[in-house]
Design brief:
single chain, 414 residues, TIM Barrel, six-stranded parallel sheet, 15 helices, 9% strand
Length: 414
């Protein structure tokens, strides 16, 4: 490998990291370096690209330790047989880069992943060394998200959790069949075993913190994973089912979905075209329904068609409402929170406003219009003190009336 300077390595390895979608900084504990102690912070505003639930932008240096890899996963641009330019950072170079970027106010934390070099244990040792050096040698208090390697020794993965805010262990593909076909060197059982161990370590640290104030924190922002969408034959229903299982069994904070993107010199087993980006978006919406709206996985899966695919022209919540019209209209002045959350167009904040407002008086259609972003989508599925959709909910063309209109963009529009 030709000798590259740090800037050239950064250009290659930052670009190689763009395919990893699981880059967020929510859920960690609050730390800062006020008073002259330590370096870095998990607070404050940055210049890009990860957002916390409260809207804060947490900028992260998102790079790979190396894009060289001994594995040959068909869907990965950094696979062993891929003809891409290779580069590799040392652990010390990543530490220096992170501190230099932070001190210039470019970033608030680090997202570090890597291809596998020499062995899983060797690569994991290098990743852990970066986090250890930042925390112990430089007292870095910013956010650290590490992508771990399931095949590595469990003690190395545990060490990563001691120094990182969040740990990612990617399941890669939603079905074991797809993983065996496209990534034969990876084993679904080993991946799930690593996730199970991580869950146990996080739970143990939480129990210790309840009894001892000095107990060390362990991955306080939890663990996440990522699934590639469209590289294999898995349907949306398969993906939703897999995600719900992962949430229940391993206590994940997030499941990320990444639409497969065709890569140079691709294997013949891969599709020639990427799936619609809207498919990825619909899966995130389905994920939201399960996590924040109280929908059961089977309910979300029932929004799919006979092939297990979610509709692309309307969101899953609207698809469910149109499919099960007998549950509507919902009386906004009487219905429990669980039913209000099932009304298309009503988000969690709008439902909270409705519940708060109706304690004082009966709500009319104009009141709901003021509490929501669009009354057009909501109106066919609710009844108020002055409105009941007697002829609207049962219309055969209701989907056409409330579905978002498709617009052709003009090539030379101003």
């Amino acid at each position: 490998m030709a000798q590259l300077d740090v800037q050239a390595k950064l250009a290659i390895l930052a670009d190689a990291a763009k395919y990893d979608a699981s880059c967020a900084s929510s859920g960690t504990s609050s730390r800062n370096s006020k008073g002259g102690k330590g370096v870095g912070s998990t607070e404050g505003m940055g210049i890009c690209h990860a957002y916390a639930p409260d809207g804060r932008c947490i900028s992260l240096l998102k790079i790979l330790l190396t894009n060289s890899c001994i594995f040959d996963c068909a869907y990965c641009i950094n696979r062993k047989s891929s003809n891409v330019r290779r580069a590799r950072f040392t652990a010390e170079e990543v530490v220096r880069l992170t501190l230099a970027f932070y001190k210039r106010n470019y970033i608030e934390g680090l997202f570090l992943s890597s291809g596998i070099i020499r062995s899983s244990n060797y690569t994991m040792e290098q990743i852990v060394e970066v986090a250890r050096s930042l925390r112990e040698d430089h007292d870095f208090r910013g956010y650290i998200h590490l992508k771990t390697i399931p095949d590595a020794d469990p003690e190395l993965v545990r060490q990563a959790g001691i120094h990182a805010d969040r740990i990612s262990i990617n399941v890669e593909l939603p079905t074991e069949t797809g993983l065996t076909k496209l990534a034969p060197e990876k084993d679904a059982a080993r991946i799930e075993s690593a996730m199970r161990d991580m869950k146990a370590s996080i739970a143990d640290a939480g129990d210790a913190a309840k009894h001892f104030k000095s107990a060390p924190k362990f991955a306080p922002a939890g663990q996440s994973t990522q699934m590639i969408v469209g590289a294999d034959a898995a349907s949306d229903a398969d993906i939703v089912g897999k995600a719900s299982t992962l949430y229940v069994r391993f206590g994940l904070r997030r499941v990320y979905y990444s639409a497969f993107s065709p890569i140079p010199d691709a294997s013949a087993v891969l599709p020639l075209q990427r799936p619609p980006l809207m498919r990825e978006h619909r899966l995130y919406q389905s994920d939201w329904l399960m996590r924040f709206y109280g929908f059961a996985p089977k309910e979300v899966q029932s929004a799919a068609d006979e092939h297990g695919m979610l509709p692309l022209d309307i969101d899953p919540k609207l698809a469910l409402a149109l499919k099960f019209r007998e549950s509507f209209p919902v009386d906004v002045n009487r219905a429990p929170k669980e039913m209000l959350l099932r009304v298309p167009g009503l988000g969690t904040k709008a439902v909270e406003r409705i519940l708060s407002s109706r304690r004082w008086r009966k709500l009319g259609l104009d009141d709901i219009a003021r509490l929501t972003l669009s009354i057009t989508k909501v109106r066919p599925f609710i009844s108020t003190s002055d409105w009941r959709p007697t002829l609207v909910t049962d219309r055969a063309d209701l989907r056409m009336l409330i579905a978002p209109k498709q617009h052709q963009l003009e090539l030379f529009a101003a």
